[in-house]
Specification:
There is one protein chain. By secondary structure, the chain is an all-alpha fold. The protein has helices at 19-29, 42-47, 54-81, 83-86, 96-99, 104-124, 143-163, 171-190, 197-222, 226-229, 238-262, 274-289, 297-303, 305-323. Helix 13 crosses helix 14.
């Protein structure tokens, strides 16, 4: 049986592509649209009221770039592992590796380079020192070291997910949630600030909501052939996912509402965002259940105007409460 990372591409595809075409395919394989997920790194600096502090913003921006590269390296790694299965998928068959637009050798070299650049950016954080009196994580080794370890933990977790954990029912969904929580933790470490545990809870619940919705979309899209594409999908069914989505949706709204009321910062006007968060959740459920969408949260955000406007309004309110309105 052929190795999952060394399949032969469709005949006559990669051989006719120019270098420019392969570079375009490589960029597509890095999935820059999904870099929006890494915006969660800015949660800590935004909700702590430190967004306008230049040194901390520069550190957060470097952290964002490092995680963008880390996630792109993982996307290429997962596509290499799943190349044959993706060719049987009605949507994923158009991915650069599965379609043969991107040679396997290019993907492997690019993955190594991307991870090395990610490591360089993580080390570059040390060029933006934190005053000892401001480093609340000094007794744990310092924010710079902890951030680097957080990036490493993310990479290790995602590699384990690709080769093992994604084949374990429910664990696969929780690992996806852990990836988002690690981003929030990384944002808090690199700033460095301390944020409410409620925000970690909201991040975890919201990511579970998105992951469950994605699983449901896969079952609907692939119908009876879901298990042939990914064996773990045989362990799920739509009624089970519907119940879990209902539980997670309720818990997400409750956790966020409690954060706005119990926020230790005292910015309780943030409660103004609750109706928009509720609408955003309902809109996403509408897209999942009625439009049969939700397979890719980043595409939903970028292509659905209602979701995009809702996110923009929430962002404006949050920025106004923390940085414009009197405390």
């Amino acid at each position: 049986m052929a190795s999952p990372i060394t399949p032969q591409p469709p005949s006559g595809v990669t051989s006719t592509l120019s270098t420019k075409g392969r570079l375009r395919a490589l960029l597509k394989g890095m999935r820059p649209k999904q870099w929006t997920k890494n915006a969660t790194l800015f949660i800590a600096i935004t909700f702590s009221g430190h967004l306008l502090l230049l040194n901390e913003f520069e550190r957060a921006l470097l952290a964002f770039l490092a995680f963008c590269l880390a996630s792109s390296g993982i996307y290429l790694f997962n596509d290499l592992l799943d190349i044959e299965k993706d060719r049987q998928h009605p949507v994923k068959c158009s991915r650069p590796l599965a379609s043969g637009q991107l040679p396997v050798s290019w993907a492997v070299v690019a993955m190594v380079i991307i991870v090395l650049v990610c490591a360089a950016l993580s080390l570059a954080i040390f060029a933006f020192p934190v005053m000892p009196s401001r480093d609340i994580y000094a007794n744990l080794g310092g924010s710079n070291l902890l951030f680097s370890l957080c990036v490493l933990a993310y990479l290790v977790l995602m590699v384990l997910y690709g080769v093992w954990l994604k084949h374990i029912v429910l664990i696969d969904i929780f690992v996806i949630a852990c990836g988002f929580v690690l981003r929030v933790i990384a944002g808090a470490l690199v700033t460095p600030v301390s944020i409410s545990p409620w925000l970690y809870m909201v991040t975890c619940l919201l990511s579970l909501f998105l992951a469950l919705s994605k699983r449901r979309n896969e079952l609907v899209l692939l119908q009876g052939k879901a298990g042939t594409h990914r064996q773990i999908l045989n362990e799920y069914n739509i009624p089970m996912l519907d119940q879990m989505i209902t539980v997670v949706t309720t818990c997400t709204l409750m956790a966020y509402s409690l954060y706005t009321v119990e926020a230790p910062t005292g910015y309780h006007n943030i409660i103004l965002t609750v109706p928009f968060v509720l609408y955003g959740l309902f809109r996403y459920l509408y897209l999942v259940y009625v439009r049969k969408d939700g397979g890719s949260p980043d595409e939903v955000l970028l292509h659905d105007r209602h979701m995009l406007v809702t996110v923009v309004i929430c962002t404006v309110i949050i920025l106004a409460v923390f940085y414009v309105l009197p405390h």
